[in-house]
Amino acid sequence: MVKLSVIVPFYNVQQFAPDTLRSLRANSRDDFEFLLVDDSSTDGTPGILDRAVREVPGAIVLRHEQNSGLATARNTGIDAARGEYLTFLDGDDWLAPGYLSELLASAERLGCDFVRTDHVQTQARARTLHRVPVAPRGVVLSPRAAILPAHRSTSVDYAYAWAGIYHRRLADRGLLHFTDGLRTAEDRPWIWKLHREAESFAAVGLLGVFYRRGIASSLTQIGDVRQLDFLRAFDQVVAETAEDRDAADLLPKAVRTYCAIIAHHLGSIERFEPPVARQLKSRSAAALRRMPQDVLDDALDSMDLERAGRLRRLRRRPAAAADRRALTAAGVGV
Fold it and tell me: What pTM does this model have?
C-alpha cells in the first residue's frame, strides 16, 4: 500500500532538478511514491528524470506532450496518485532528509483533512523562515474559521501547496485539483476552496521545505502575459466566495486580497513588457468594475492611502475601445 504520494512538476529546471531529486532520495520509503511530471521540458530535464527512475526509489515519470503549466501538471500527478496522503514539491525546490516521514507522522497523529507547515525561503545564500499564519499549533481547527479576519494575513494568504500534506479523501471530494491552465496564482483558488469546503486542518511548526526565490527563469520573475493569470485566479476566488453561504462575511477578505495583489503588480509595473503593462492596467480596471462595488468601497477605505489612491484612479480609468476588443478576444468580460 502506498502511504504517501509526492507530486513534483518539472519544467526546464535542469540546473536545480538534481538537488530536488537527491532530496527525494533522502526521503524515500518503501511506501512512498514520487510522481515526477515533466511538463514538456525542452532542456536537459527529461534525461535527468529518466535517470531518477533508476536512482530514486518509488520514482515514476509522467510526461506532457505540450507545456500546460503548473496547475495542470499538478493535476496530472493527483490523477495518478495512489497514496493515502498527498503532498507537493516544485521541481526547483528541495526537502530536508527525513522530512516527509515527520510530515506524515504529524498528519496521522492529528487525523485531520490537511496539515500546513512552515517553510524556508532561499535566495542566493540568504535563508528566511516563513511561518503559517495560524495559531495554535498542533491543534485541529476549522478551515472556514481560519479565513478571517479580512485585514490580517491568514491561512488563505499562505497559499503554497507544497507547505503541507493532504488526505486522499480531499481528492475524492474534488478539493485537491487546481484550475487547469493557470500559470501563476494557481494556489489561490485552491487554498480558498480547501478552507471553505474541507472539514478540519492543523498547522505544525515542522521545517523541511526549502523554496528557491529569485530564480531568473521563474515565472514570478518574468514580466510576460502569463503573469496576468493572477486576474483569472482571483476572479475565481471572488466568484466562488460570492456563492458561499457566508458570502457576506468572507467577500471582504477576498476582495481586499485581490485589491492588494493588483496594487502590488501596479507598483512594479516596470518589470512587465510594455504591451503586457497596458493589459495589466486595462484588465485590472475591468476587474475592479466587476467586483461588488459596496465591498470594494469598504476594502479601499481600509487600505493605506498610496495603494487605495492607485486603485481608485485605476477604477475611474475609462475602458478604451481597443482594450475592450482585446478583452473580448481573450474571453475576459468587462
Answer: 0.91
